[in-house]
Records
---
Amino acid sequence: MRRTIIAGNWKMNCTRADARALVAGVVVAASQRPDVEVLVCPPYTALETATAAAAGTNVGVAAQNLFWKPKGAYTGQISAAMLVDLKISTVLVGHSETRGRFGVPEPDFDEAVLRHFGESDETVNRKVITALAAGIRPIICVGETLAERSAGATDVVVADQVRKALQNIDPAQNEVVFAYEPVWAIGTGEVCAPDEANRVCGVIRQTVAELSTQSAASSLRVQYGGSVKPDNAADLLSRTNIDGALVGGASLNAADFTAIILAAPV
Ligand code: PEP
């Protein structure tokens, strides 16, 4: 039995005061569902505040990214040791907004600038290795763009991202979580149909079985992310291959995030 994992990715939102207030709401929801693993992913600046606000509750705090170098002249980057110092034990890796794969066309200037975050499959793999070596569990985001889906390449793209993210890592020996996040569904309000989301989460599981063992694949947790809202969460979360949700926009509203947590199958 895989424990449902619901994570809220706050992206570049929330001051420390906002974080305190939001965690207070999430704590109430999480206390009603101790069977569900609930995480919030604040920006770096609010990690410590959110951790303090969640202390003694069953809400966990995760970071949104990390860099693979241990220290040095890497302006703006955060190392694994810095996250460990804050007692952070989960990190998102390879979110499409850091891979530079966008669901919504951006105006040219933003597009050009944002693409410089340009995560590749290789940097994702380095970050996964770095996180695990530091005892931090990665939530690895994978997913196809609309063009890739339209070309019928979804399964190939997703399986390839999974294989490359796990290069030199055995998921039988290390806990990793995957989030299937179709790029076209992120922040667009257009959710992937639950049957299809379930099918692609199954592709991720099957790929892990091929790379590792059937037992590692059976215990692997795979979240769905992309416009998860209170009105579609129960349907998605009831599917056999979907073990949770990675929630962006709706996680910034305590009532909406609460409804999503409570929608997890009992
Ligand atoms: C995300 O950013 O991971 C995400 C799924 O966003 P949203 O829920 O807003 O689509």
Note: The domain at 5-262 is CATH 3.20.20.70 (TIM Barrel).
---
Amino acid sequence: MPVSATNTATAVEDFDALIIGAGMAGLCALYRLRQIGLSVHALETAPDVGGVWYWNRYPGARFDSESYTYCYSFSRDLLDDWNWQERFAAQPEVLAYLNHVADRFDLRRHIDFETPVVSARYRQQDGTWLVETEAGKQIRCRFLVTATGPLAVSRFPEIEGFEDFGGECYHTGRWPHRGVVLAGKRVGIIGTGASGVQVIQTIAADVDRLTVFQRTPTYCIPQRNGPLDEGEREDIRRNYGHIFARCRDSFAGFIHSFDPRSGLEVSEQERQAKFEELWQQPGFAFWFGNFIDLMMDPTVNEYACEFLRGKIMERVRDPETARKLLPDHPFGTKRVPLENGYYEVYNRDNVELVDLRETPIQRITSGGIRTTSADYPLDVIICATGFDAVTGSLAKIDIRGLGDQSLSDKWRQGPKTCLGLQVAGFPNLFTLAGPHNAASLCNAVRCTEQNVDWVADCILYMRNQGYTRVVATAEAEADWTQHVNEVAGMTLLDTMTESWFYSAKQPGQERHVLVYAGGANTFRKRCDEEARRSYPGFEFS
Ligand code: NA7
């Protein structure tokens, strides 16, 4: 490991590239940048690799992507020697996979664990970044690559009284590694997004009582998970090339692709038949295999909503509970949870649904949760209340570019980026799966691999041309930011639905889109085009 002395007394380590984060994206970047001959290092807050898969150990945590699509494609040997057990792998299997990757490619030796980064400053005098860790260690690098994850900063709800609660309280995104005994306990869960749904359907049968505190009902679609047998695994291995090609050409990096027909050009009967066929399929078929205008045409979207509301009414026996579970926002404008028996949970005698829109939570008490209509005595409160998404993990680091400009300040009125990968005024900084990048609305591995390949190719281009500094131009950044906003505005995402796709953290705050809604396939083409034309949106020196 190269170490050099600086003009201060502190020893500073030097690398060509420093990666912040050793989750799915960070490991990929480490592998790839080392492969192109850079000296590369990673800093990770957690004691081990895995990112979200390290932290999110709550009961029922699992992929929403088909396992065999949420894996790296960079090594044929790796594809051959890993045997996915389930169509949608559970968290322990995913984490085992990531550990296997770290070991197989000898990546751990490049990672400092339990090393949160507090600041990163661009030094104009020598064109490097000076990164400082919480422990005061300094690292200098030419390229700084953030792989801090779009869903890394857990958010507890702002409800009074947590400190008074006499029982146990956990957030799904920071689930204790020792595990939590829930059997026989009175459990309350706040939040019914993808994490909440997974927890609820998994623990309902084990706990004494489960009270679900729901603010906004969501459309959940059946995951249809199951074990993969050896025959299926063989098939998958033979077809990896085809599978990855399908993902590459699809809107969101999954094996599902939109039906090219409009939902308006078919008869009512055909439409219902299509919805039913999609609903019977595993995974996100109903979302990303639906009619092409599902996310743009409110009428088509409402047809899909009606179909899904009908399914909920069929599955939940008590009509009053079913009514509370019926969403009224456009389908897909909040992240769609995949479920395995979620709605049937509400047919159990030990489960109660509390609609917070009718009776909001007033406070947490020493004995449980108090709403405007009742006290719910609880032993455990689970917060499945989501994350400070996409920009939250970057905002935790004091990142300063040219002229000591702070990234958080620059993004105060919403993110501004070029391709969601670079920011004007921040040379040699690459933001994997950052805001405005397709990776947050995508099968994460497929899209972060694309991000990493693009960054590696850009660095190779610089090396070939003799450049050491790249920075997005202000014009390219303005164009991309405008495009990201316009594209979101053309979809139903831009309704007033609250979701982590947008930046409003509190009701009433200004909203800024955080994801690229134009599709992962379009995003890839834009990135490829940029590289093919020798990066016209970037300045090199
Ligand atoms: P999400 O999708 O952000 O869901 C958070 C849930 O928590 C959602 O139902 C929220 O209701 C609810 N929430 C948040 N704050 C509160 C308060 N104060 N009171 C009541 N309910 C609240 O996070 P997840 O962890 O489920 O999923 C994140 C991603 O992980 C997911 O998209 C996948 O990519 C994997 P709301 O809808 O805001 O009314």
Note: The first helix runs from residue 24 to 35.
